[in-house]
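User:
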Amino acid sequence: MAHGVAQELQRRNYRLEVLDGDVIRTHLSQELGFSKQDRDTNVRRIGFVTELLSRNRIIAIVAAISPYREIREQLKKTSTSFVEVYVQAPLTVCEFRDVKGLYAKAKAGQIKHFTSISDPYEEPLNPEIICQTDKFTPQQCVNQVLDYLEQQDFISALELVTK
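Assistant: Predicted structure:
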């Protein structure tokens, strides 16, 4: 979904960066594990980078698992343009879609601190957007995000925009 939104915004000539959680962990947070403290540190780092990008009029799209509500709420309060998109999917759907086999490994005890298996996922209380990925296609979810951004005047509905 993040890449679908990014492709459309790039087509409209917006400046943006996609901050992928796996890439961030490889380059910026490689020393961190998956304890609550390490996850919160990772999310804070991502929030810091997004704020730097936003200050320079670059849209930051974050595609990362952020399982703890408290840290998301902290970032929401301190960010200038935070839009929380809850990509909702039941655990059974996540397990079915699991191309890396991580859910099976986590259930077998081979991966510790795995979100929704051995660690909690705290659903957002008031996300701006809820994308029900078990009911709608990826493109419908992308359109839902774009429609919200247009309605809130974060982006223009015009085909090509110079920002």
